[in-house]
Structure formats: structure tokens, C-alpha cells
Amino acid sequence: MENPAGDIQEYRFPRVRALATNAPWRWLRKGADDLRAAPAAGLFYGSALAAMGLILGHFVGRAAYELALATGFLLVGPYLAMGLYDVSRRRERGERVALRATLTAGRTNAPAIGFYTIILILLMAVWIRVSVVVVALFFEGGMPSMQTLLRDIVTSENGIVFLLVYLAAGFGFALLVFSTSVISLPMLLDRPGMDALTAMITSFNALRLNLAPMLLWAAIIVVLIAAGFATFYLGLIVALPLIGHATWHAYREAVEPG
Questions:
Q1: C-alpha–C-alpha distance, residues 206 and 214, integer Å
Q2: Nearest-CA neighbor of 221 among 164, 252, 181, 162?
Q3: How many beta carbons lie within 10 A of that of residue 249, not counting itself?
Q4: Which of 3, 32, 47, 168 minimizes the number of CB atoms within 10 Å of its CB?
Q5: In sequence order, which residues have a C-beta less than 8 Å from that of residue 125 and are 6 or more positions away?
Q6: What's the burial of 210, exposed, middle or buried (CB within 10 Å: 0-12/13-18/19+)?
């Protein structure tokens, strides 16, 4: 028996709010409050991720792969900060924050979070291949090391062209990932019944409606992570949990409650 037309409910995506341009600075302040309130969890995740980056950089040894892995932090970062979203969520609810519980926070919506994680991994694999190809196109005689890359760029006739091409390719990948992940994973964690596609579309809508504040937020993330790398990964110990906590507050301000 067919249902009457009046019984059919139109599916609606989560409603996105308009944000002020300076909203990212407020997210950072709230993120800093979360980090101060639960320093053990924040510094644990920050230290683990910084150690991961240091180990990868130490064993890779080739500029193309090191550049790809360094910028890849921006691609897979949203998933790596899952436990930090849970810390902020628990503080918001007035619940006790326990590091052990945050380690398995993704189980609340495992199918959707797992599916989106696979997408991020595939994108990072593609980006690593693109990075290697771009470097190989501009440097003959093998891949340069990170120690000689800057010298090779300065002395090469096509050094500036290489930088422009590499930055353009990286920007394209980063924009794709950022537009679909800026609030999607915190939302999947917060709403167990939501699917990955809905979260990605909602994230894109948040970026589209709030282009100026979201681009400012992207620039802040890039600066914080770059500062972390510039300090031999030590800065990442604080920068990554700060970004993770702030991302939770970005989601809460950008999307109306379900």
C-alpha cells in the first residue's frame, strides 16, 4: 500500500549558521580553555602526533615524501583529533574527562567515521603520489633530500615554477579536504545516526555560507602547524590539541543543534 503524500517527510540537511569573520579567534580561546582544563589528554595526543611526524620524517629521507607527509598532516588531521573532539564534548556536557574513554570515542558512529577515514587515507595516498611526480618533473638525477631541497630550488632555473606548481597542487587537495572535513568529523562524533555523506555536504555548506571566517580558520591552522614543524615538531605538542579543541567549537557554532 502506498503511503499518502502527506506522510512523506522531506529530508533536510542540518541547518548551518552564519558566522562573524572573527569567529575563529573565539574558537581558539575556547580550545585553549579546554586544553588548560584537560592538559593530560591534550598533551598526550599532541605528543603522540608530534612523535609520529618526527619518526616519519627521520626515516623517509627524501624531500618529495617528507613534503607530502608534512602537508599530509593537514589532510588526515581531522581524524587524528577525534579524541580531542570528545574531550571538548565531555567538558561541554559537564562530564568527567578520562583519557582512556577518548581513545575509543569513534565507536559511537563507527561505520560513518570509518568510511570517512578511508576517504582521507585514499586522498593522502593520492597526494603522496602527486607530490612525488611534481618533484620528479623538476629535479633530474633522483629525488633531492630535505637538506638540499632549498639549495636546489634557489639554484635551479625552474625553482620558482616548481614552488608555484607544488603550492597550487597542495592548495587544491587541501581545499578539497578542508571543505568537506572542517566540521564533519566532530558532527559524526556528536550525532551517531548521521552518515558521512551528509556530514561532508553540511561541512561544505558551512564553508560556502561562511567563506571569510572559514578561510581565516584554514590560514590559522596552516600557520600553527607550520610553526610546529619549524620548532622540530615540538610546537605540534600544543598546536595540534589546540586546533582539535577549537574545531569542536567551530562545529558547535556553525551547525544548529539536531
A1: 8
A2: 181
A3: 23
A4: 3
A5: none
A6: buried
What distance in Å separates the CA atoms of residue 185 and residue 181, rounded to the nearest whole number? 6
Give the single-character DSSP code of 186. H
pLDDT confidence band for 63 (50 / 70 / 90) = low
Helix axes 63-80, 236-254, angle to 10 degrees: 50
- Per residue in 68-87, pLDDT tens? 666 666 566 677 789 999 99
| CA angle centred on 257, ends 93 and 120, rounded to 5° | 90
Strand partners, 143: none
Q: Which three cell numbers stand for residue 207?
A: 564553508
**Residue in the block written with cell 581565516:** 216
Map grid coordinates 569513534 to a residue. Answer: 106
Helix (H, G, I), strand (E, B) or coil at 237: helix
